[in-house]
Amino acid sequence: MKRLLAAGSGPIYEICKVFRDGELGRRHNPEFTLLEWYRPGFDHRQLMGEVAELVNRLLPEPRPVERLAYAEAFHRHLGIDIQAFDATGLQQVAQREQISGAESLQLDWDGWLDLLLSHAIEPHLGRGTLCFLYDYPASQAALARVRPGNPPVAERFELYLEGMEIANGFHELSDADEQRRRFEVDNQNRRAAGLVEPPMDEYLLAALQAGLPDCAGVALGIDRLLMQVSGAEQIRQVLAFPFERA
């Protein structure tokens, strides 16, 4: 889709099937459905407003919108300033929160943040609201732009409903050289972990080099949203053919 944006498509969307190996559970199915769209001229904050409008039109009852900065979420729910903690300090917080296996895990700073977020913070997000968690650490930028500051932050967001992530959005990175560097770093990390390294997406990099318009994009999980709309407890309840019957 970014190649189409670079070719001048303008606002664009698609609904598609996505596959992730090894994810199966109450909220996960290896095959799921995404709604993805891009808005030229938007940043991540403007896109949060549009996502909220769409989701509130679909829910049985509209919800108030909460926007919570990533660092503030850790301060509110764990009482810590993430910039003041290294990996060892975050491990101690995980042990304090009695997260299973925390005493023996070997994770880096971002790994501990992810663990704390998923186990100690996410369950509290979006309880009666549409909660947008935004401005992630720069080290978790993925495909997002990084806004300079002290500290710098990634211009991305995730939407939570009843403790469950529904959408993931970005103020899209348009710097081809920076995107190539991030791909290379990701492959280095995958190599060190013994994982398969995907080939470099030269077509995407060429499109960025040609010129991607300033835009924001989001991927919204339709199956998870259907769970919220219908009150389903298991993702299999909103799928025609869940994994065990595929």
Properties at a glance:
single chain, 246 residues, alpha+beta, BirA Bifunctional Protein, domain 2, eight-stranded mixed beta sheet, 36% helix, 23% strand, tRNA binding, nucleotide-binding, ligase
Model description:
This is Lysine--tRNA ligase GenX. It holds the Pfam family tRNA-synt_2. It catalyses: D-beta-lysine + L-lysyl-[protein] + ATP = N(6)-((3R)-3,6-diaminohexanoyl)-L-lysyl-[protein] + AMP + diphosphate + H(+). Homodimer. Its EC number is 6.1.1.6. The chain has 246 residues and is α+β, with helices and mostly antiparallel strands. The protein has a domain at 27-70 and 129-196 and 216-245: Bira Bifunctional Protein, Domain 2 (BirA Bifunctional Protein, domain 2, 2-Layer Sandwich). The protein contains 8 helices and 8 strands, in the order H-E-E-H-E-H-H-H-E-E-E-E-H-H-E-H. It has helices at 2-6, 44-58, 70-78, 87-96, 109-121, 176-192, 202-211, 222-230; strands at residues 12-19, 31-40, 65-69, 130-137, 146-147, 153-161, 164-171, 215-221. Strands 1, 2, 3, 4, 5, 6, 7 and 8 form an 8-stranded mixed beta sheet that branches. A hairpin with a 5-residue loop joins strand 5 (146-147) and strand 6. Helix 4 (87-96) runs parallel beside helix 5 (109-121) and helix 6 runs antiparallel to helix 7.
Summed up:
Homodimer. The chain has 246 residues and is of the alpha+beta class. 36% of the residues lie in helices and 23% in strands.
